[in-house]
Hints:
Order of helices and strands: HHHHHHHHHHHH
Distance between the termini: 21 Å
Radius of gyration: 17 Å
Shape: globular
Keywords: Signal
Structural class: mainly alpha
Number of helices: 12
Helix content: over 70%
Number of strands: 0
Low-confidence stretches: 18-25
Signal peptide: 1-20
Amino acid sequence: MIRRVLFSIFLVCFSFSTWANNANNDSIANRVFTLIYEQNLSEAEKTFTNGKDELSEFYRTFLNLDLHWWKYRTTYSKENSDKLDELIDASLLPETETYEQKMRQIIVRSYQLRYDKKKFNIFGMLSARSDIRDLIAAIEKEDPPFTGDEQKLFESYVIMYQYIENINFFANAKKSEAREKKLKRMEKFASEDNVILTTVADFFLARMYQKIEDKPEVGLQHFKILTKKYPTNKTFAEYQAECEENI
């Protein structure tokens, strides 16, 4: 049960983390991101359509997938389901030779994983998860071409992945030194100026303190930051209410 919860948190956190790729708070990417997480999806789609030519291929891929994911998640309509499924298939890369291609493929696979999880497609989930692991292993052997927020994006993803995948469930009550270091690093990310990176870090910390570290009062502090930043996001509000019930 705990592993399923953590895996779901990882998927959500990862969808946030992909956006922190060296974007300034007034950029098109951040405007679209903010509109999506305010759940103003029609305005987000309009902003994305009008500004997508100014975005890199990396950002166009992320924004388009995330927008369609939230359109599906907030309606679960067949139309939005089919559109998301088609977009995922169209976004998969035939080759992943460069660092950037691997990063894009990881993002596409992560949305495929989330979608297959909703559809109870076990084979699809296992396949996507295996591909993500292989891509991360390959990337860790390379020197990233990113600096600044882009490098922090990758580091935040590695932190989330390692924390969730390698946690010792039999010693769940005790925080290891490695876990403590990961939490402290994410706390540092939560204090950054980049709106996307801070969203990633706050959500991860909120759920980890609530579900793993048995400190719901600390997790609640991060949830309050998120609900203040995105007051119309029902998902964050629901998680905050869940956390408050545990205090």
